[in-house]
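Notes from the 1:1 (GR / supervisor)

We went over the backlog. Supervisor wanted to see one worked example end to end before approving the batch request, so GR pasted a single chain during the call. The sequence is below; no edits were made to it. Supervisor asked that the structure be written out right there so they could see what the output format looks like.
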Amino acid sequence: MDLIPLLIDFFNNIDVLMLILVRVSAFLIFLPVLSGMSIPIQARLLFAFVMSAAIYAANIVTMATFYDSPAGFAMLILAEVVTGAMMGYILFFVFNAILFAGQFIDFSMGFAMVNVLDPIQQIQVPIMGNLLTLSAFAILVAAGGLHEFIRLFFHSYQLIPIGSAFVVGNAPLAEFMVWTLVGFSVLAIRIALPLVGTLLIIDVCLGIMVKAVPTMNVFVVGMPLKVLIGLFLMFSVMIPGLDIIYDNVFNMALNGMASMMEGMAPR
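Structure output shown during the call:
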């Protein structure tokens, strides 16, 4: 009999649950690993609904704005879509620094013309970038990083009640996004620098050899040498140091999401 009042309360607040589901769905669209096309859409929808029901049952949701018309409800839906999407996109954006670093590595090794299909994002990606990204995603799942992101998302309902996100005209938030872009570029360069820097030194040495021995065919000697040394450095330096790369990317993503939430919090 205790189930009946719970069901009555549930159906009386079905609009609140729908608004929660909208923010959760927008967040999951960009959440690393779970946003991949390799996961069936039915499974993602079920997870979004279960997560929304858990948030609703936790009694942490408040509404800063109430609606009195269908147009008002539509505006609330739009606000929640933007709120969830921005929190998820900052994670997707930061983790793509590994893929961006792979672009530098492939260009230096001569693999820039050879891309593969990423089964998660369904796009053409560089070979080494795809290897590093999939490895980082495996660590993310094994280390419980997804749990940290979801836990922080739960906290967003205490910091940003429904309909209260401050996005339009938010100068500090825009400044934060610019600095995030700068940090993204710096992080990608730091990831690729050990391998790219070594291959750059090899290019300089090959240039000196061409000047000393003009008859030497630098393409016949240089390309296989760069591929061989690049693969050696990848599996002797980059892969063993992947835990350090993951820690830097994960901490930047987690701090970025927390800062994004604080930036969108109502003033």
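Supervisor's comment: The first strand starts at residue 115 and ends at 117.
Batch request approved.
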